[in-house]
Write a structure and sequence with these properties.
This protein is of the alpha+beta class and about 100 residues long. It has a single domain, classed as 2-Layer Sandwich (Phenylalanyl-tRNA Synthetase, Chain B, domain 1), CATH 3.30.56.30. Helices cover about 25% and strands about 10% of the residues. The protein contains 2 helices and 3 strands, in the order E-H-E-E-H. A 3-stranded antiparallel β-sheet has the order 1-3-2, with helices on one face. The longest helix is centred in the C-terminal third of the chain and has 16 residues. The N and C termini lie far apart (about 30 Å).
Length: about 100
């Protein structure tokens, strides 16, 4: 399935940040998170999962609107968001070491 901006899944860096609590936006266990992940790291994870993506800078995570860390939007269709998040988390942890 090709990338469609209307149905794309949004991946915020906060989902993968080990320095945040779940209440602050982290979506995964800390074992699958890294300290301050960049948009490039998340995009690399999308590439390795063979997902089409688009990096959007200067966007704010809704609960942390002053910080404009951006987001990565990936195609929907191959996998659900709940399947994509841990796989990208594993890639981030492997590439950090």
């Amino acid at each position: 399935m090709a990338y469609d901006d209307d149905t794309a899944i949004v991946l915020w860096p906060e989902y993968f940040d080990s320095g945040l609590t779940r209440a602050q936006g982290r979506r995964l266990p800390t074992a699958l998170c890294v300290k301050q992940p960049s948009l490039d790291m998340i995009a690399k994870g999308a590439i390795l999962l063979d997902l089409e993506y688009r990096v959007i800078e200067d966007k704010s995570y809704p609960s942390d609107w002053p910080s404009k860390r951006g987001c990565v939007r990936v195609e929907k269709g191959k996998m659900k968001k709940s399947e994509i998040l841990p796989k990208i988390g594993e890639i981030l942890v492997k590439n950090q070491k």
